[in-house]
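Structure ticket #2291
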Amino acid sequence: MSLSSAISTAQSIFSNTGLQSSALATNIANASNPDYARRVGILTIDSAGGQQLKIERTYDNGLVKQTMYSTADAAGQDTVQEKLERIRSLLGGNDYETSPSTYIATLRDNLQAYATKPSESTLAATVISSAQDVSNSLNAISSEVQAMRGQIDQEIGDQVRELKGLLKQFEDVNNAIKAGTATGADVNNEMDMRERYLKQISKIVGIRSFTRGDNDMVLNTSDGTMLFDVNARDILFSPNAAYDAATDGNPLIIDGVAMTSGEDGNTTAKGSLPALLQIRDSVIPTYQSQLDETARGLIEMFAQLDQTASGLDPLPGLFTWEDYVAGDTLPASGAIMDGLAAQIKVNDNLVKSKGGDPTLLRDGGYDVDNEGVASPNYLGNANGDASYSTLLDSLVAGFETDLSFDTLSMLDVSTSISEYATGSVGWLEQLISESAAAKDNKAAQLTRVSEALSNTTGVSLDEEMSLMLDLEQSYKASSKLVSAVDEMIQSLLAAV
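Resolution: structure written out below.
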């Protein structure tokens, strides 16, 4: 080896060691940064055939994409679980103390006690109070779940704004990466930043990506809708001012296509947006239909029936509804009446605080149009017997009598009112159970994938320390080579 070659080799080693040392220092400084990909030195051949060291970021395309998918799955499931737990809290928590089914069971027990002692006016008042608890529960829960839909609309609007902001930031960094790649500049930091935006976007909506020339990236949603190509696509959403049982939520439109909501307890939602749509447009409307059918079943079961065989239509009895006027027929059996749960109430003529008489429940034939007119054709206790219990016994038996319910409520179409109300709780509990199990599984999957990505592209301090020792030895070897060359040159000059 000539002296000039030795000097050139030493210079190359010093240069490469300096680059690797700089990359090592950057790695150590970002050891705790989850969005940082480790920098490594790669020996390459330049256009002249010479060797040069290039600093590149570690990258695993498959793991990055799997992390995005798992992030979207976990975010969607977390959102569904949170909202289901919120609905359960409206029913009194894990024991469902304030659910309609609990109050209906209490009403049945109190009515049974009154039927055994029909002369006890205090028992009659207790039955009416229990009935008010049932109607108040249906009113309150119906109002709360519809208010919850309005709150979800606001959350959707907030997340749409956040998504638009992320896409704008993604566009800026994507443009920087394209420009830097075209000119040969170092874009490793920008690549880290773009990957961080991908993870944040995945929490809101599931995405699929592919990269074109110059590192230009294109994004589609999980269901194939174009989300970003050179620039972000239009995202349109308008929240409703208020919700009731008959209100449909407005769609979320991306690039002219309505987003598909998730399904089932183990939700298919990719990201929080389709999960919010699932709760707003599927879960709550289904539960609302169960509340409405429970209310309709109670009105039907407690209706006053014609006692004279004259063929008269049933009239509201213990339970009626706010919009009822004289001459209205009862809601059709087996068909949902939207919003009935919000309107059901106890007949004022049975409520003592409103001037009514609770013992009329025993006798039948009480006023339903608030005009002070009795209904003699519906009177059961014509003789005014204080021990009369026929109507009360039939009402107690009604708790075990099958009624018809709408198939759209997703529960049994023929069952008793008690079993139907309990089935509604069971339906919600099953969704929560499925969601909780899926949440644990998807969280575990995300953890495993994130760890695998971190092990591949993250910084290990032990590894960096080992590399530091290697670089130190390389530097020492280069220094010795330079010293040896210097001695040889000095000797040569002395001889000359």
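Closing remark: Residues 3-58+458-495 form one domain.
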